[in-house]
Amino acid sequence: MKRNKAGLVISLTLIALLALVAIIGPNYLPHQPFKPDMRTALQPPSHEHLLGTDNLGRCVACRIVAGASTSLFAALAVVAIVFAIGTVLGITAGYIGGVMDHVLMRVTLIFQAFPSFILAVAVAGILGNGMGNSILSLCAVYWTTYARLARSLTVSMRNAPYIKAAKVCGAGKLSILFKYVLPNVVAPVLVTAALDVGSVILSMAGLSFLGLGAVRPTAEWGAVMSEAKDYLQKAPWIIVFNGIALFLVVTVFNLLGDSLRDALDTKGEI
Amino acid sequence: MKKILALVLAMMLALGCVAFAEGASPAGGKTFTAGATTGFFGAESLDVAAGWDGWIMSIYGISENLFRLDENYVPQPWIAESYENVDELTWKFTIREGVTFSNGNPVDAAAVKACFERTYQINDRAASTLDIASMEADGQVLTLVTATPNPTVINDLCDPLMGIYDASQEPDPELGVACTGPFIATAFTAMTEVSMVANENYWGGRPLVDNVELKIIDDNEALNMALQNGEIDLIAQLPAAGTAVFADAEGIVMDAKTSTRANFLCYDQNRPLVQDQALRDAIGMCIDREAFAEVVYNGYATASYGVYPASLPYGSTDGFELKVTGYDPEGAAALLAENGYEDTDGDGILEKDGQAVSLKLITYSYNNQCIQLADMLQAELAGIGVDVQIETMDVLDDTVAADDFDFAVMNYAMAPTGSAQYLISMLFESASSGNVAHYSNEKVDELSNQLKATFDEDERIAIAKSVCEQVVNDRVYDFVCHQQLICAYSDKVTGFVVNPTEYYLITNTIDIAE
Question: Could you tell me if A258 and A10 are in contact, meaning their C-beta atoms sit under 8 angstroms apart?
C-alpha cells in the first residue's frame, strides 16, 4: 500500500511540474516561439538554443514549452468532457434500464463499430480545422468507453442491499443516483480517465500531424513534428525533441493512471 | 491425401507468386521513373483542353505545340516547321510533314484547326491567350487570322493549352486525347500517377527508354527518400528543403535553372480591409524577401521587388520609383499609425474605423515554401498589430471564386509563353477572369491594350515595364521572390536537361543506364 501511495505522489508531483511549465513557462522563454529569425535557421543544439532551431530559426525548446499547454490542456479537456458525459449517461441508463438502456447501448455499439482513430479523422475532417473541432472529434471517439463502464458498474450494484435500503427509506431516483451510485462508480472510471490522458495526447498529436488539429501559428507537438519531417535528414533535432517531449508526458500520465488504480484498488473492476 | 493437397496448394502458391511477379513489371525494356508534388505532376485528366491539364501533359511528354520555348524563352518551330507573318492580322503556318498522332492519324492543317476549335469551345482561357478570328486549312498550311493585331502569336502558340491533339476522336475517359509527343499514356490515375510507353512512331526519333512512370509524392521527405533508395530516378521541381539533402549526395546530380515562377501575395479587392493601399504597403514592408529567398529556398531563389525576373528583357526594376525597397517593420508600423490604424481596445490588434484588422490568408497545403512565407507573415504582422488567420488547402479556386479570403500566397509562372503580355492580360486586366484579386487600374488596362498592338520590341519592353511599375506600386499583387526550377536525379540518367519553362520535362533523349 505504501509503495502505491509513493507512486501516486511521484506521478502527481511530475504532473504538477508539467502543468507549471505549460502554464507559466511561456512567460519566461529566452526566445519568441513564433517569431522567425532567418539568421539562425536550422542550427543544431547549442548553448544559445539548447535543442536547436527549426527551419524558420525559431528555438525548438521554446516552441516545445509554448506548445505544451495546447497539447496538455486540450487532452485534459477531452478527458474531462467524456468523463462527465459518459459517466452521467452510463449510470442513468444502467440504473433506469429498459428502453433507455437499450438505446444507449446500441448507440455506443455503433460508435465502437468504427476504428477509433479513423472515426476521429472523419469527424475532424467534416467539422474542419481547429482545436475545438479536434477536441469534439476525439470526444466522439472516447465517450463510449466511459458510458459502457459506468453502466456495467451501475447494473452490478443496482440490487445491492444499500440501494434497496435507500429505496425503502424513500429516496428519490436522482438522489439514489448521485448519492449512492455515483460515488461507487467514480473510482474505476477515474482510473480509466487517468490512463486515457496519454492516449488522447497521442491521438491529438496524430490529428495535428495530419493537419486537422491546431490552427496556425501553433507549436502543438504533433503539428510541429508533421512540419519537421521535411527536415528529418538535415535537422533531426526538431522532430526528435518534440517526440521525446510527447513520450515523457504520455509516460507520466500512464504512471499516474497505474498508481491511481493501485491506490484505489480497483483492479478487479476494470 | 493430405500430402497431395499440400503439394497442390504449394504449387498454386508458387504459380500465384509467378503471376504476381509478372504483373509487377508491365512490359519489358528500360523504365524511367520520376516523382514530383501535386503542383508539378497533378493532372485531373489527360485532355489538353481541360483546365490546366495541357500544361501537365506537356511536362509528361505526351502533348506538343506548334512552337516551343528554348532556354531563353524564345519560341522555336516544333510541330510547325515555319511561319510567315503575312500582315498584322494574318499568320501562315506550315505543319511539319510526317507527324502522326499516337493513334496513327496524320497531323495536317485541318487536324490542327479542329483541335483549336475544340479547345476554344471547352476552355475559356484559350480566347484570352490568343484571340483567333478565323482559321483556314489547306493541306499542311494553316492560315490564322487574329481578331486584333497581335505581335505575340508565336509566343501564345507555345502555351501548352494550345497543344495539338486529335479532335476527330472522342477522348478516352481514362487516357484522354491522342497527341504527338514521345510518350503515350497506358494507365492514368488523376492526381496520383501515370504510366506511359514509348511512341514507336515519334517524329523526332524513338525515345531511348521504353516505359516512363510518373508518381505524385506530396510528402517532401518521402520524395527525397524515394530518390535516395532508387524507387524513382528523378525529382522534378525539387522542393527547396531537399536541396540541402542532395547538395553533396553521392550518385545524385542536382541541376537548377532560373525559371519565371514567383511567389506573390494577392489581395482580394472585394474585401474592404485590404482595399486600403496603406495596409498593403505596410504588409509589403514586413516581408524579409532576401532572408526568405536565402533561407527557405536555400539560395535557389532571388528576392524580388518587380513582377518578372531580371533575367527577362522586361524584368529589371531599374528606373522604377518603388515605394517598398526592403524589409522595414518599423516603417510599416509608422505608416499604419499615420493612416489612422490604432489599437483602441488594447487587445494587441489594430482597428481602423472601429473594425479590427484581422485578415484571412490562404495558401496551398502542398507548397511548403508558400506555407513558410505565410508563417513568416503571420509572425511579422502580429508584431505590427495585424492579425492573420492562415488556412491551407489543396485547391484554392473555390475559395478564391467565393471571395472568401483577404489575401493569398500564390505561386505562378510569370512568363509561361516568354511574353510579358501573358501575365498582364491574365492577372492585371480588369476584365480578365484570371484576375483573381479583381485588380482594376485604368492606366494598366490602357497600357495592356497598347502593348497588344505594338510590334516593335523595344517599345514593347518599355510598355511592359510601365505596367510593372504601376502594378508593383498599387500592390494588389505583391511579388516576393523568383525561384529556380531544381531537379535532382540519379547519375544513371543521361540526356536530361532542365528547361526553365518547366514544360518539356520528359523527352525522347532521356536514357537510363541498366
Answer: no
Instruction: Give the SS3 label for residue B89.
Output: coil
The verdict on B124 and B205 lying in the same domain is yes
Q: Which residue, among A32, A233, A239, would best test binding to B if mutated, counting the most B CBs under 10 Å from its CB?
A: A233
Nearest neighbour of A229 by CB, restricted to B221, B374, B376: B221
Decide if A93 contacts A151 (C-beta within 8 A): yes
For B239-275, write each residue's pLDDT tens digit: 888 898 998 889 999 999 989 999 999 999 999 999 9
Q: Which of A211, A216, A231 sits opposite B375 (nearest CB)?
A: A216
Digit-coded pLDDT (tens) for A239-270? 999 999 999 999 999 999 888 888 887 655 55
In this predicted structure, what is the pLDDT of residue B47? Answer: 96
One domain for residues B162 and B190: yes
Cβ contact (<8 Å) for A36 and B374? no
- Report phi then psi at A244, rounded to 5: -65, -40
Complex-level ipTM: 0.78
Closest-CA residue to B85 (of B135, B140, B153): B153
Structural domain span for residue B71? 23-233+492-512
Residue A129 and residue B296: Cβ atoms within 8 Å? no
Query: Does residue A3 sit at the B interface (CB-CB below 8 Å)?
Result: no
**In chain B, which residue's Cα lies nearest the Cα of A57?**
B295
Cβ proximity of B265 and B360 under 8 Å: no
Beta bridge partners of B486: B256
**CA dist., res. B267 & res. B271, Å (int):** 8
How much is the pTM?
Answer: 0.83
- In chain A, which residues have their Cβ closer than 8 Å to the Cβ of B220? 229-230
CATH code of the domain occupying A2-33+56-264: 1.10.3720.10
Contact A234 B244 (CB under 8 A): yes
B321 & B396 share domain: yes
Q: Does A162 touch chain B (CB under 8 A)?
A: no
Domain boundaries, chain A: 2-33+56-264
Min Cα distance B198 → chain A (Å) is 34
Q: Are B480 and B497 members of one domain?
A: no
**Interface contact flag, A34 B219, Cβ < 8 Å:** no
Q: Which of A55, A211, A232 sits opposite B221 (nearest CB)?
A: A232
Rounded Cα distance, B280 and B135, in Å: 45
> Chain B closest CA to A53's CA: distance in Å?
13
Gap between the Cα atoms of B483 and A270, Å rounded: 60
Assigned C-alpha cell, B157: 502558340
Q: Count the domains in chain B.
A: 2
Within a domain: B390: yes
Distance in angstroms (rounded) separating the CA atoms of residues A176 and A164: 10
